[in-house]
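Question thread 4412

I'm putting together a teaching handout and wanted feedback from people who do this every day. The idea is simple: show students a protein as raw sequence, then show them the structure tokens that encode its fold, then repeat with a second protein so they can compare. Below is the first pair exactly as I plan to print it.
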Amino acid sequence: MHNTQGQSPRSPPLNRISSTLPRRLFVILLLSLGVYVLLPRLVGVPGTLSAIRQARILPLLAAASCQVASCLSLAYAVHGMLLGLGPGVGFVNVLQVTLASGFASMFLPSLGLSGMAVRARYWREHGYAVETTFLVGTLETLGQGAAHTILLALALLRQQLAGQTAPWRLLPMLLSVILLGSAALALVLSSPRSWRDILLRPLNYLRKHWGRAPTSALALEQRLSNLRRALVALPRPAKVSLLLGSLLRNVANALCLHWTLLAYGQRVPLQQSFISWTVSDFLGALSTLPGGLLVTDTSLSALLAGVGVTLSTAVTVTLTFRLIALWLPRAIGIVAWYILQRRSPEPLW
């Protein structure tokens, strides 16, 4: 029997002032304040809202359509991997969960693990183990990196053929990160003790949220062995879905930026839109900040200014693009997360 005498009942983590959620919301608030209030003033664009109102509506609608295509492409990639690793999940359900996980990764506690928790919780209902969810998330990240590298190489080649000096040094930077990520995945699946112990922490954190017993190191080693065999036997359609979905997602985001530039009358070469989007998104991902806040915004503004867009216009374009590419999916993700919470007999939070 557990001695509970003298102990007060634990309050839910989301209700404690010292919990991760209030701290995380405070950090996001500060970053958003810096990006959407201070950044325009620092570069001399105090009337950002009035500048945004001058944008042409049709290109902005095209940019929003590209962002919808980006969300669908991500769901297509994840859906293909789930089909290759298990019984499969309906595409609409995958789309709903990926949108909800994007919202959770940014606003709910656990520094990004909340998004993984959303996926693990609702895909568990379809027979997927937690480690399979982690594998799908890792493959999704690697697929994103591979797509970034392919599209960046094509954009640099087109820039070189047009007689311009292409920054080829960016390519090894992306390739090195992909190789490091692949090596880390191989180490985890090979089950060395040090990596297995590191993986146990987030895995048992999720199981604790569900009120389940923690997984032992021996059990995790067996499950990783099964996962390794499943990855080796991953069918070709799943691999094609991963690469094709990642490529379409990146193309859609780059086109979203290109259409946003056109909304402000900025006719930047298409390959430059691809380069600017790829580099800024890559830097934002490396920062590990929620949504790449501040890092993606400042780097994208600088990159656009470097290709001839005036700094004030570059900041306005960046903030508009981020409203479409970052906050629009998060707003839809709130609805998806709420529907999942209401539908599930055991809500995650």
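The second pair follows. I'd like the answer to focus on this one:
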Amino acid sequence: MAGVWVLAEGREQTLELLNIGQMLAAELGAQLAAFLWEDQKLAQEYIDHGADEVLWLPPLSEDQPLEAYIPTIVEASRQADPDIFLVGGTLRGKDMAARIAAQLNAGLVSGCTSLKWEPAEKRLVMERLVFGGIATQTLVCQTRPQMATVPPRTFTIAAPQIGRVGKIRELPAPLSSVVKVISRRTKLRESADLSEAKVIVGVGRGLAKSEDINLARELASTIGAALGCTRPIAEDLNWMPADSYIGISGQRVKPELYIGVGISGQIHHLTGIRDAKVICAINADENAPIFEAADYGIVGNLYEVLPKLTQEFKKALKK
């Protein structure tokens, strides 16, 4: 069998895909390969994390977009005919995956949260969330390669096997793309990167006015947490930056602890926090849907609960 290929924009996403890729390759009894176009020093790290082969893409010129690699990737895939092709599900990754799938005349399942190999049928069974996260859809591809995009942080990064042996194969330099990059400007974030936060305090429509966010901000500062919110707080009321809201169309987070303040718990938001290890909810309505998803709940007025909770944390941290 030709094996499993993984393609992602950056190091962390590649290592995440190598984790699940290694499991799938073992079940197939096949090789695992990873694309690399960044620092070639990362090749050995990819090998340590399970890659049997690193497919090195030569650097592009400054005026070439990342999509210029697509013809080279497609040609390599036609020659090797991999069984499974996993792509990191970032905005650019999904765009590249769609173009690669179209040129290979292959099926593509986007936003996969689960990947399982069925040896009897020799097929990859893929699951993804649908209908705003309230249901799971199971799909298979009838074509080769079986392609899927996987959202960042769906899988963890496995411990490396230091000194593992693999090979590096340099692919042909890509042809010049007709699309030219005129300039590059870094998009500045207005809030912290919630995807990396270990502890998050989230606020919702239970707050009466924007100034009241300071109550949650003080709690977050006390316990070293990042501050997030529901979509209405950012999109409708503009009380917080747009890149700080958590939900199916916003950020999906995976903290050790999530504290939801004044959040009713609509499915749009719950989908974004479903991977949190511990969820604590604070809401005056004991019937709020968020309590069904919470590990711990405090029924009470947030204007009374938050100051007391912050004070208790401050006392505990002084000991």
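Top answer:
Good format. For the second protein you could add a caption like this: The first helix runs from residue 11 to 28. Residues 29 and 283 are 51 Å apart (CA to CA).
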